Amino acid sequence: MTTLLVIAKEPRPGRVKTRLTPPFTPAEAAALAEASLADTLHTVARTPAARRVLVLDGCPGPWLPPGFDVVPQCAGGLDERLADAFAGCAGPALLIGMDTPQVTSELLTVDFADCDAYFGPAEDGGFWAVGMARPDPGLLRGVPMSTPVTGAVQRERLVAAGLRVRDLPRLRDVDTAADARAVAALAPHGRFAARLARCTETTGRGR
C-alpha cells in the first residue's frame, strides 16, 4: 500500500496564499488556505494508505484530522523540501500539496502494479502530485520550481530515469481569486467553497 504525503504551510496570515491579497485580506487568505488544507487532509484521511504524513512548515492546528504523522519540512528551496519528504519513505509514495481542495480519494488511490511513477500536472504549468514506487529524492532536486515549465521538467526527470510514468488528470491550483472561484465550483460542498462563499458574501470581494 502507498504512503500519502501532503506538503503544506501552516495557514497563518501573511505567510500563505499571498496572491489572493488583494482582493482578500491576509486573514481571509489564510482562512481560505486553512479550508483548502482541511479539505485536502480529510480526503487523504478517507483514502486507503500504508501511512499518512503531513510534511509541515509550521505547527499543526485544529484543522488536522487524526491518523497523520507530522514531520517538519527541511530547510532549502521547494525542490529540496519535496526531495526530503520522499527521503523518509521506504516504499511506494504519492505526494500532493495543499492547493487542490477538489482532489478526491479516487484520484489518490494509485496502484504501481504496472507503472513506476505517477504525475499530476497543474494548469499553471506546475504539478499537484508526484509519486514513485521506489522513491528517489534525487529526481526532484534541482527542478526549477514555480515556473511555467516546472511540471514539464519534473515529468521529463522521471522519464529520463527510465520510469514508466502514468499521468493523473490535470487539476487547477488555488493561487488567485479566479482560481478560487473555479475550484470552489468543482467541489461546492467542501470547506473551501463554504469559506469562499462567506468571504465573498460579507465583502463582495473575489467576484
Largest sheet: 7 strands, mixed
User: What is the CATH topology classification name?
Assistant: Spore Coat Polysaccharide Biosynthesis Protein SpsA, Chain A
Count, helices: 6
Low-confidence stretches: none
Name the CATH architecture.
Alpha-Beta Complex
Mean residue pLDDT: 96
Give the count of structural domains.
1
Query: Which term fits the overall shape?
Result: globular
Portion of residues within helices? 25-40%
Tell me the name of the CATH homologous superfamily: Spore Coat Polysaccharide Biosynthesis Protein SpsA, Chain A
Secondary-structure element order, as H and E? EHEEHEHEEHEHH
Strand content: 15-25%
In the CATH hierarchy, what is the class?
A: Alpha Beta
Category by helix and strand content: alpha/beta
> Between the first and last Cα atoms, what is the distance in angstroms?
42 Å
